[in-house]
Amino acid sequence: MITIADQFGIKSALEILGIEAINEGTSTGANNFANGKIIESYSPADGVLIAKVRASTKEDYEKTMQKASEAFIEWRLVPAPRRGDVVRQMGDELRKFKEPLGKLVSYEMGKSLQEGYGEVQEMIDICDFAVGLSRQLYGLTMHSERPQHRMYEQYHPIGTVGIISAFNFPVAVWSWNAMIAWVCGDVAIWKPSSKVPLCGIACQNIIKTVLKRNNVPEGVSCLVTGNESGDLINNDKRISLVSFTGSTRIGRHVSKTVAERFGNTILELGGNNAIIVSQHADISMVLVGAVFGAVGTAGQRCTSTRRLIIHESVYDKTIGVLKNAYSQLQIGNPLDENNHVGPLIDKGAVQEYLNAIEIAKKEGGKIIVEGGVVEGEGYESGCYVKPCIIEAENHFDIVQSETFAPILYVMKYSTIEEAIALQNGVPQGLSSSIFTNSMREMELFLSQSGSDCGIANVNIGTSGAEIGGAFGGEKETGGGRESGSDAWKAYMRRQTNTINYGTQLPLAQGIKFDL
Ligand code: UN1
């Protein structure tokens, strides 16, 4: 029988990425001391065991941290543009490995091959961004209130950055953090999700060669595996910044733990993203934005579209168009580019999806497009589900919470103010969007009384943000920002400097203190 792995060249992708030797569950060699218990990585595409890796023990973690701390002493002294040049080479390397790495992302995580490549493209793009940034780590200069004084601020590396990433973006989210951290002069210690450890190892292998070639200590980029490592990072005073992507529930714990020791966090937690479909919307555009937003990545993006808030006058028409589109969705092997919807990450996620549908029904939701588990040939992993649409009310408990699955809740509105209130009426605040050709509605939606989210789009869906902007959200989404714009500032410590080049020592605020 020809397996998916044979058909799509997974074996050779793994070999190219240096993953062939880890079936024994031995140490990965990717600057990762790992002697703990075995983590098995199964593909949700076909349920096949891809490889085994070992988790890091407490001692392994300690050794890794030691290397990171030593590397920081050296790396922080390398001029930022030179650090940028190293990151530029990482981008070049990622270009070379785009195909095998994109395939591995698709096979290990279950997102479509196109999206797997898209993730690697995001990594390449953030490298390019970081290279430019390495010459733009600007601070301001200020005019002092005192004569012959000069004031300015400068940014210094913050130290070690702990990156705890989620399964759904197994490589890109790490790169948004790591590439920026590196040009800032920090070192990174990465704990990938235990559901996708191979992606982490592959990335380490790719960049390891660049570090070596440039005589950069390999502790600049460390990897730790296994869930215990997450809490070691959170509690470790040597880690100045923890960038965590995951659920609000775990994020709350990370936030408290790191705050307790006065560490900094960037939290990228749950979303509950809505699209407002106005009577002035171009419905053909809504279709692409809403369907990709709701079913792309099988609804497992934190930016996935969870709610459609539709004007009552175009409600029936929009639902009709959606029903038609959903009936044409191809569900199946994510590596096969004919398919639109791949599997959920594991059977646990399938159960959560089923539970959410049951709860929605109990709360009074009306099924518009039926969900369910897909069974039969090609679906042996048990992780494939049908994207479904449920007519619901915003206040339902299930609508207020994030289910990482392709469930779309639809609801009606009559005034734009009401639509905005519904869109904001959830605990999360990541991404939001309006489809409208009305300039008034658009501006209202983007105004201070409009969307309360970190991302607000017009005539674009809620998912698929570009790396150039600061990515993150408000409220229970955690308030962090990473990736583009000036998100780099979180990876550095700011120092305000005042220099007196005169011969007197006047005090600020005109205070007299004569001796
Ligand atoms: C996430 O789901 O954790 O905007 C990140 C997007 C992607 C990133 C999502 N660029 O959909």
UniProtKB/TrEMBL annotation:
Keyword Oxidoreductase set for record: yes
InterPro entries: Ald_DH/histidinol_DH, Ald_DH_C, Ald_DH_CS_GLU, Ald_DH_N, Aldehyde_DH_dom, ALDH7A1-like
Annotated ranges, domain Aldehyde dehydrogenase: 37-496
CDD domains: ALDH_F7_AASADH (cd07130)
Top-rank lineage group of the source organism: Bacteria
Subunit structure of this chain's protein: Homotetramer.
Protein name as it appears in the record: aldehyde dehydrogenase (NAD(+))
Native source organism of the sequence: Flavobacterium soyangense
